């Protein structure tokens, strides 16, 4: 399903995104390496085993990026002008290698754009949920989205 236009959204619209993703060791290793993040909790099994978690923690910025990525097909694919910001990002539970993630999105605010009459601002609350039904990441995302008839 392609993304929706600004005029097609209503406050309270909620999507359970169909695409799921199991996080692999390669995902975590490549993302940490690509972003120059040397945190031993992400990369060193011995350090991670000695931590309170007892295993490798998945890089939190990968977790965040995965949450947003899983939402794009249903929210903004083909209708996005620009992402304007991400607010109130929290990670209430850790993500481990082998966890299977799913995402949800809810429209929490709609606002006409003052500078672009052909677009409006949609604020989504995105959540990433693991196979144990625990929310592992949540944020507000403000997106400038095209109007259908503009």
TrEMBL record:
Record field: transmembrane: none
- Ranges for domain MaoC-like: 11-123
InterPro entries, per this entry? HotDog_dom_sf (IPR029069), MaoC-like_dom (IPR002539), MCH/BMMD (IPR052342)
Task: Write down what this protein is called.
Answer: MaoC family dehydratase
- Superkingdom of origin organism: Bacteria
**Native species of this protein?**
Sphingomonas ursincola
Coiled-coil spans in chain: none
């Amino acid at each position: 399903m392609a993304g929706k236009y600004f005029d097609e959204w209503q406050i309270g619209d909620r999507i359970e995104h169909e695409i799921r993703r199991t996080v692999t060791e390669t995902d975590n290793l490549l993302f940490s390496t690509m972003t120059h993040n040397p945190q031993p909790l992400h990369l060193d099994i011995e350090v991670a085993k000695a931590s309170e978690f007892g295993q490798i923690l998945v890089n939190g910025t990968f977790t965040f990026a995965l949450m947003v990525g899983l939402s794009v097909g249903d929210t903004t694919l083909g209708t996005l002008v620009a992402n304007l910001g991400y607010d109130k990002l929290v990670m209430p539970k850790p993500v481990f290698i082998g966890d299977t993630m799913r995402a949800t999105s809810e429209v929490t605010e709609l606002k006409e754009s003052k500078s672009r009459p052909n677009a409006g601002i949609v604020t989504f609350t995105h959540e990433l949920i693991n196979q144990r039904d625990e929310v592992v990441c949540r944020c507000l995302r403000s997106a400038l989205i095209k109007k259908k008839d503009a």
